[in-house]
What does this fold into?
Amino acid sequence: MQSFNYAKPASLADAAAALAKAEDGTLLAGGQTLLPTMKARLAAPSDLVDLAGIAELKGISVSGGTVTIGAMTRHADVAGSAEVKGAIPALAALAGGIGDQAVRNRGTIGGSVANNDPAADYPAAVLGLGATVRTNSRSIAADDFFTGLFDTALNAGEIVTAVSFPVPQKAAYVKFPNPASRYAMVGVFVAKTASGVRVAVTGAGNGGVFRVPAYEAALAANFSPSAIADGVISAADMNSDLHADAEYRAHLVAVMARRAVAAAG
Amino acid sequence: MPTVSMTVNGQTVSAEVDGRTLLVEFIREHLALTGTHVGCDTSQCGACVVHVNGEAAKSCTMLAVQANGASVTTIEGLSEGDDLHPMQAAFKDNHGLQCGFCTPGMIMSAVDLAKRNPNPTEAEIRKGLEGNICRCTGYHNIVKAVAQGAAGMRG
Ligand SMILES: Cc1cc2nc3c(=O)[nH]c(=O)nc-3n(C[C@H](O)[C@H](O)[C@H](O)COP(=O)(O)OP(=O)(O)OC[C@H]3O[C@@H](n4cnc5c(N)ncnc54)[C@H](O)[C@@H]3O)c2cc1C
Ligand code: FES
Ligand code: FES
It folds into this structure.
């Protein structure tokens, strides 16, 4: 790891200021992605701005059909939250299936969405529920937020403060985890909402998380596993690596989607 | 260099460290508590698991400065003198280790699991230990040990 300056500001304004004056500063949340990346020397920031001292970034609130989760809220807190389990059980279950307990005790929702790993779980819930990502300067709709592999609509220095999820009528997330890391080889989030059905797929696409309009239309007409047809997903759009080739991933998307619809009930 | 202060196994410790110092380096090299192991150094194996404010964390994936002000428990802090913690005793009784390299992290994760879920099923134990890798035992006796250790912790 290269050396860096470390700061732990107590407010969002101080964090933004610390980041602005750093030569090549990076935000530190749970560190479960950033620290391994720095240890591998794939990142070498001049400054780390630790968000752990900012109280306003932590916590979960439910009001008027919306669940809002602060950026520094850990996966374990979301998984164990009675409020989240009551309002969007699929979201609590998704958080409880990320990595392992030690990772869930440190990793945060803000870090996960900002990182936009193509195999991460939260992006599927954010896109599948049509959530809104809130930052220190604006609100970004999920459909505009995820822009490619490890890429988001965030500007340099922009800080995610919270994610707001509308409560769906029903929803479920089913993933085929990589047996070693538990990252999604394919994960499908299905949600039925007042304004229609949304289906988001993570782990599979060669451009990161994506929606499947053909599944959404079919499920809007008939919300049952049999509505998910084979052959909709093209292997040409899938990721291929040592864990699974593109054709296998394309097949798994339909299988996971059917299981998610069945689980949503 | 930043100064870090924390409580480790009940004792207050304070030191000036390079900001890059990992929590596991602080524990092993500054405090000479070598029970906490480094198996992979890439956040995968769980040999380095300690408790930070009572919760399992991979100490190779945390900076010492992130634990500033925290209360940390390592494997050395579990037993009371020569009396093994019930989870340690259960690993001994059930032959839950061979080379022992994974054992400190395994036990720290198992104690965290049993605190959250005092009576875990076999499936829950296997799921709860997903972040801890053992290359010797095949896990069978570890799972038995954790069930007994959890029972011992219930009292
Ligand atoms: C062994 C292991 C298994 C894992 N398995 C899974 C899994 O199954 N599924 C899964 O989804 N993830 C998995 N993860 C990743 C984990 O969920 C991470 O916690 C997460 O990806 C990053 O969150 P973090 O809080 O640790 O962020 P960090 O590592 O601290 O930061 C990640 C990136 O986001 C930026 N960032 C952080 N917070 C903000 C913010 N508020 N605003 C703007 N930018 C920010 C940082 O600058 C950095 O670039 C795994 C990790 C490990 C080590
Ligand atoms: S040494 Fe920390 S997880 Fe392997
Ligand atoms: S006993 Fe050898 S690695 Fe687990």
User: Anything to note?
Assistant: Chain A is about 30% helix and 25% strand. The first strand of chain A starts at residue 5 and ends at 7.
